[in-house]
Amino acid sequence: METTIPTAVTRPTRRRVRLLTVLAATVATLLGWVIAVPLAGVELTARTGSDVQRVTPVAVAVSTLLAGLAGWALLALLERLTARARTVWTAVAALVLLVSLLGPLGGGVGRAATLTLVAFHLVAGTVLITGLRRAAG
């Protein structure tokens, strides 16, 4: 009896994996917010220019969703433009993650807020990079 092993992920399956990846990253950062803010008592605030603002769960969810959707869109575009989309996308995504860390490192108010915001970026980036890379064509 011969067993066939699929060699490529179908387009609908790829979309589903990408959608689940973006949702998983969002859930992971929201879970981090719940652990950090109400449970651990971190006062999660960040500087935006001369203002200091609280980082709300809505802000966490929206920014993670937008980052995930932007990563997905870039991956889809690269898949149409180059045969090395996975490699190019991974390098760009890793660079974007590193640059994104400048926000909390320069804007977090206090050590706990800064570390928490860095952790959110790393969690979202790790989930998005591994999941979207896996679903690359």
Automatic annotation (TrEMBL):
Protein name: High-affinity Fe2+/Pb2+ permease
Domain of life: Bacteria
Keywords: Membrane, Transmembrane, Transmembrane helix
Spans through the membrane: 20-42, 54-75, 87-106, 112-132
Pfam annotation, one family: DUF6069
Keyword Endoplasmic reticulum annotated: no
